[in-house]
Please model this.
Amino acid sequence: MKAPPRLQVLVDEGLIDTVVRQLMSGKEAEVYVVRRGGDTWCAKIYKEATNRSFRQAVDYTENRKVKNSRQARAMAKGTRFGRQAQEAAWQSAEVDALYRLAAAGVRVPKPHNFMEGVLLMELVTGADGDAAPRLNDSIFTAKEAVLHHSSLIREVVRMLCAGVIHGDLSEFNILLAADGPVIIDLPQAVDAAGNNHAQRLLLRDVDNLRDFFGRSAPALLDTAYGPEIWALYEKGLLSTDSVLTGRHQASSKPVDLASVVREIDDAQAEESARRLRMQNPGA
Model:
């Protein structure tokens, strides 16, 4: 097919040879299958973000560093240059997270290059050799659900040990590769040690996995891996070899009511977004 203008730049630079087909078009990005030599990759073209609320952006971008003070001031003022810098930082966060997590052995697409708002990375393939489906498009037996849930909990732990929390993990951004689940879509990834919302985001990620796989394996609905993982992390005891039980003794400390109310609001917003994605899977 004819290369879109932003991919033609990569063809002209010799980073890719041809564009095979469009794989996906969503609100934040378009993804294409491309080739370079004998390799087949995917190219993620970022769109300008116009659908993220201010509060979401603050939660995810807290403590993210920018290149210089001029950019930081512009981003704080919300100028045109500041918005451009903020969008560039949002895109770079995914690139940085992919390289960091791939180096830590986390099951994410292997990144190859990033140029002009286009991320070149591994094409994750399914059992049929074609582009892998999302978990949301797959049906599991109870046994398969338990196995995939266990695998992904280990990946969440591996990510946290590398200092990263996905922040929006669900069945919509996990692919089912031939050899198991692969985690994608990381522009909202947060620094576990430097973000005040890290615990809440980690717990939500784990709860999303529990709720999805619990539809096929109801026994998973009684597990509490999120609090257990975070408790080990806070104590400095979490490792990729940590033995998890899925059980956790609740703290007896006074409840922060404001945080609870906010978490409920976020859960309701997440559920609304989930229903919208289910109604418009290609959006």
